């Protein structure tokens, strides 16, 4: 949190100083609102994808643990072959 | 209508869901990565701006090269003083061409291809004529543009 | 699905049964401190991320001092999603080094270095040193004022070591002073030499972990259950954690992209309030504690010698901690480890705030 505040202050300071010094700041992040909105939307989709995957993997894990508790996850050793 | 048994096992359901989602996720991430890794493939400019003074006064029946993106462009003044601009790239295998004033033809040394002074392919392997550009002058600025492109100059 | 045909194709040619049965046997103990087991895997995942983003970035970066800074500006402003991948590489690096320190200190405090795992500690320490050098060399490639001054200080500091200092300084700098040659040298380190060393050492490190199994802290040895199988239970848990870490890195990269400074001028004076990257701050702060001269000897050299001794002791801790090697509780070394951790954290925080 402190780092974010420091960063924001540093960023604003840099901006004002450079405006005064008439030097160009290099745009490390698109400034147009249209681009910004697309980027944040992509970030939201990305998180939804990740959370979806996490949920599915947890479902898999629960199933595996259920099977392991029942003891049916291993094949019997002397099982006859089908052919 | 409720059925007595499940059409798909729990295992198949979970594995398909997992696999499908994973493929989509990795595919999306890979797409982003590839978009970065592949550069904007060989884009040519729509127009270039040159200094009028540098080009307009070349002797008749001669060419002066200029940069067309990363490729060769030729500013061409015919014997009768009319000026043209063309892409100095052979339509066969993209070698740079040269102008032969004695023959009044363009020549490509790679496979001995010849073009006449209107750019038409007359001899050798080149399959198509040379690409010519539109020229407009705006005071000091000489604007060479692709045919059919509306040129909008940036401010200042 | 064609998965079965692929499996059959492979089965007809290679015998996976043996490897599969060994893999199935891998068990991970369960106890109070099992959460620290995940730190190594997270560090490895972040390194893989760094390798991938680094590889694509190296398509566009120009390691010549005249163009270096400009090539990065081009990446960030002109290329599709260039700003994102550069930001991702930056935050991946910060997180990787953070997690590595967490991993190092957690193994230190849980005494995983004790017999028979001494080589794990040794290889791990070398990997930590390599990662810090990764960070320094990568940061230098920016060729802005801060990076330039940082490398001057770092290589100058290394030069203060007695006897070998001069050689190390000249080797790192590629000459007497920090120049374009230094840039090319650091590029070679960052892109080729260090990655190969890292791959080799990580291979050894991971193989040794498979061989020895996971270390259980002394206090938990009786209580620990023999535990969960790695495949598939913990493998999936690892995947969940890695996915969440990926989410965090991507969010940081999107919301807090790093700045780019002006191109470095070797003749300009060092900018005000110059500070190295955070993982050097504790060294920096320690140097500040020492006066310029102690009893007629160069204060900085004494500081560097003392720091080197401290780091050397840290490196060789498995060999000093006799009690742990015998399997006994070793409170002295627990306190030493806590002091190391506290010193590192406090000095870093002080360095950051001043």
Task: Give the SSE map.
The complex is a heterotrimer of chains A (83), B (156) and C (354).
Chain A: H1 2-21, H2 33-70
Chain B: H1 10-37, E1 47-51, H2 52-56, E2 62-68, E3 71-77, E4 83-87, E5 98-100, E6 105-108, E7 113-115, E8 121-123, E9 132-138, E10 141-145
Antiparallel strand pairs in B: 1-10, 2-3, 3-4, 4-9, 5-6, 6-7, 7-8, 9-10
Chain C: H1 2-13, H2 17-25, E1 27-30, H3 38-57, H4 68-78, H5 82-109, H6 118-140, H7 145-158, H8 165-173, H9 180-212, E2 225-229, H10 230-255, H11 281-289, E3 293-294, E4 297-298, H12 299-315, H13 317-320, H14 322-325, H15 331-353
Antiparallel strand pairs in C: 1-2, 3-4
Structural class of chain B: alpha+beta
Helix content of chain C: 55-70%
CATH fold description of the largest domain in chain B: Rieske Iron-sulfur Protein
Q: Under the CATH scheme, which architecture of the largest domain in chain B would be assigned?
A: 3-layer Sandwich
CATH architecture of one domain in chain C: Up-down Bundle
Radius of gyration of chain B: 27 Å
Total strands of chain B: 10
Task: Give the name of the CATH superfamily of one domain in chain C.
Answer: Cytochrome Bc1 Complex, Chain C
- End-to-end distance of chain B: 72 Å
* Oligomeric state of the chains in view: heterotrimer
CATH class of the largest domain in chain B: Mainly Beta
Task: Write the element-wise H/E pattern of chain B from the N-terminal end onward.
Answer: HEHEEEEEEEEE
For the biggest sheet of chain B, the summary is: 6 strands, antiparallel
Task: Return residue spans of chain C where pLDDT drops below 50 for at least 5 consecutive residues.
Answer: none
Strand count of chain C: 4
Q: Taking all residues together, what is the mean pLDDT of chain C?
A: 88
Strand portion of chain C: under 5%
Poorly predicted spans of chain B:
none
CATH class of one domain in chain C: Mainly Alpha
* Strand fraction of chain B: 25-35%
Q: C-alpha Rg of chain C, in Å?
A: 23 Å
